[in-house]
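Quick one, T. Sequence first:
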Amino acid sequence: MDRRDFLYLVSCGVLGLAVTARAGAARRHWAWINARRDADPADLRRRFAELRAAGIARVLVGGGSAAAYALAREAGLEVHAWMWTLCRGDLMDVLPDCYAVSREGKSTRDHPPYVPYYRFLCPSRPEVAAHLEQQVTELAANDDLAGVHLDYVRYPDVILPRGLWDKYGLVQDRELPEFDFCYCDTCRAAFAAETGSDVAALADPTASAAWRQFRWERVTTLVNRLAAAVHDGDKQITAAVFPTPTLARRLVRQDWPRWNLDAVLPMVYHGFYEQDVAWIESAVREGVVALAGARPLHAGLYLPHLPTDADLAQAVAGALRAGAESVALFGGVRDLTGFEAG
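Structure tokens:
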């Protein structure tokens, strides 16, 4: 392992970070952090200072707290507002008729798949795009923010990662109708206008390449519209995406190499795919190759699946060796800072 090219994490209390940088250029690593609106400012200051001291340079702050954005910036961190994009149960009163509809004809507003919070908006609805554009425009106007970070910018999982099948008592060896989205009137009409076919009349919609492409385009069009709005505010836009282009297209209809972002943060959470730590390197390499230099990739690492320093060092080294610019930590930063991250 080349010690110039990896972030080395060592034990310090519960978890500590020490950066061994590429000669002459320190890497600027990330962490996903939730900060409640009612959090105590003194506690936030302490925790952001701990992150900065630990070697984290950039934070993706969830919770929508303008006060937290300001305090993170005060601590010397680069701050990005982390927002849930299409998984939005909080908009059921604002956009009640804009939720994705399954092949069974059930809306996620009333029948969320898997878990109660899985209430996904339909990316084809103009009202959805307009509302989200307004939201990111407002965030881009915040002087404490360097950027906006999109999460859940996708359809519900038509197939869950293999490691989650037992948890939900499922065998998803095909695209089951209750998890296959979106068949709302807007999507059906748009698809018919483009192809001359009613998707609901197809003998097997899951076999239609045109229907898969249509949904990739729905999400891509939405992301690129939001990217344009954020760029108009002279801010960066990034997104958390599924670990590889192949898995993202297949499982959640994300064609993320085509998104006009400033960077992507693939969630290369190997444990959910029943893979070993070495898989992280190959997954990152697939993404880097697909991006072909268009934008940087920062590898998202799930700390609960990297329980030892050796595991984490191997994951970071593999990600950087495969071409990731840095890593982003998720799911265990609370052990270091007291934050609820994840």
